[in-house]
Amino acid sequence: MKSLVMTKIGDPKEKTIGELELREFPMPEPGPEDVLIKVAYASICGSDIHFLKGEIGNLYDRIKSELPRQIGHEISGTIEKAGAKAMAIGLKPGDKITAFYNEFCHSCYYCRDTSDDKKIFCPSRKSHHDAMSQYVCWHMSQIYKLPEEADLRDACLTEPMSVALQAVEKAEIEIGSHVAVFGGGGIGLMIAQLAKMAGAATVTVIEPVAGKREIALTIGADYTIDPISEDLVARAKEITGGMGFDIILESSGAASAAKAAPDIAVVGGKIIYFAMYNPAFDMSVNLFQTFYQKGLIMRGVLFSDRCVERAVRMLPRMDFTNIIQRVHPLEDFDKAFADMGSGQYIKVILKCND
ω before 28 within 30° of 0 (cis)? Predict the structure, then answer.
């Protein structure tokens, strides 16, 4: 079976990009608690581009030492074969599924403390980054069954959808709120839709690419702002009646967006930062003005396994029509990554099997 591997990592100082290669691997054999998945689609995450460029901070040396390394974690497919214990919990060949790429130990302090989703910090978690393959073998705890009528193309976006859902929940959007989303990428546009469902009075997407702004309006955004050609603060006040946004979700990963968020927030507003920022980027915050005078609440979001099941349930309510903009066969991975790396397309996915 074929699987995509990263054979060379880029150097962020030299602005070089790594290299990918499609290689042959032996077919995985599932153990009693494992599931062999015939991958239908694997989506390219923005983090995959960061990994390829080497923009991963203190992970750089470790990832370089692991080369050649398989890649990909946003996945959908069907069960090809299931171990005995996996079958016992209702997983069987032919089932349509999606999966969450992290496998947890379920025994450490973080896994057992459910007060605030601390499982994501499990020191023994195993991250499966081999989704861009014809077949993968993952643990049964990572598998989520899909309805028979589910669209496998859309379902490969379940994992980023769970991130969007986590961000919206952490924002605690109240009915009637003015919400702003930095970034018109896949997760940003999912957040825009979820924010409206959560009761936002207005949703504004802040995005420099004109095509992405147009799509934001088609999926329910009320306003868009071009942060390059427009006065961001002036437009924010215009949209919110001079007050500023109640909730701001920063999904772009751009330093300029991260810095600008406090300037367009209402007094007492909330800002959620959850993009993968350049590890060298540090943002200074004036504590007196930001927290004492303006009373802003800022928090981060990594990922969340607890949101995956609900993300699956929400898939039929989402509009991915214009979010998935390119579908390439696995063999054309070079074109797919060039498309995603260009920044002009929202989501680019690989079709891994016919």
Answer: no
Does the global pTM surpass 0.90?
yes
Q: Which domains does the chain have, with CATH numbers?
A: 2-157+323-351 (3.90.180.10), 162-300 (3.40.50.720)
Rg (CA), the chain: 20
DSSP lists the bridge partners of residue 350 as 42, 328
Least trusted range by pLDDT, from 113-117, 135-139, 313-317 = 113-117
Name the nearest CA neighbour of 350 among 77, 33, 7, 35: 77
Cα–Cα distances in Å, from 259 out to 75, 180, 269, 294?
33, 14, 15, 15
What the block records as the tokens of 190 is 């999912």
129 by DSSP, 3-state: which? Answer: coil
Angle CA(274)–CA(268)–CA(198) in degrees, nearest 5? Answer: 60
Tell me if 159 sits within 8 A of 308, measured CB to CB. yes
177, 247 contact by CB (below 8 A): yes
User: At 32, is the secondary structure helix, strand, or coil?
Assistant: coil
Q: Pick the closest to residue 204 from 176, 243, 236, 229 (CA basis).
A: 236
230 CB-near residues (< 8 Å, 6+ apart): none
Q: What is the tens place of the pLDDT at every residue in 336-349? A: 999 999 988 999 99
173: its two tokens: 């959007």
d(CA 100, CA 136): 12
Q: What is the DSSP string of 173-215?
A: PPTT-EEEEE--SHHHHHHHHHHHHTT-SEEEEE-S-HHHHHH
Q: What is the mean pLDDT of residues 285-298?
A: 91
